Amino acid sequence: GVCFLIIKGISDTGVYYRTVAEVLNDPSLPDKRGVRISGEVVRDTITYDQSTLLLVFQVRDNEEPEKIMKVIYKGIKPDAFKEDIEVILVGRYEEADRTFHAATLLAKCPSKYEGEEQVKE
């Protein structure tokens, strides 16, 4: 009985990891599970309504930059969120409106936090 509960709990909360291109090429992902995707925020596509906390933007696939997906996120915009950065999204893709509805939005840290390379003389 305990094994059943563990397996059931994992299967109910499990999330598939996909790229933007994979979701657009095969949108027949299971309806009852979430999807985690990552991509780069497309320049000049961000709109944010602070009164309703509605953030709308587009992400592109890292390997196939011509594959672009619209994203809707309702919540506080992360401080690190901006154009041309990589984001990780968890949510559901709605094939009918070709939009990813994100429940979670994580902005990857900018490269300014990476260490500088030492110049050898």
Strand count: 7
Distance between the termini: 66 Å
**Helical content class:** 10-25%
SSE order in H/E notation? HEHEEEEEE
Structural class: mainly beta
Q: What would you note in describing this structure?
A:
There is one protein chain. The longest helix has 12 residues, at 2-13. It is globular and about 50 Å long. With 121 residues, the chain is mostly beta strands. It is 15% helix and 40% strand. A five-stranded mixed β-barrel has the order 2-4-5-7-6.
Question: Can you give keywords for this protein?
Answer:
5-stranded mixed barrel; 121 residues; mainly beta; 7 strands
Task: Lay out the secondary structure.
Layout: H1 2-13, E1 15-19, H2 20-25, E2 34-41, E3 47-49, E4 54-60, E5 68-74, E6 86-94, E7 99-107
Parallel strand pairs: 1-2, 5-7
Antiparallel strand pairs: 2-4, 2-6, 3-4, 4-5, 6-7
Put the structure in a nutshell:
The chain is mainly beta. It has two helices and seven strands.
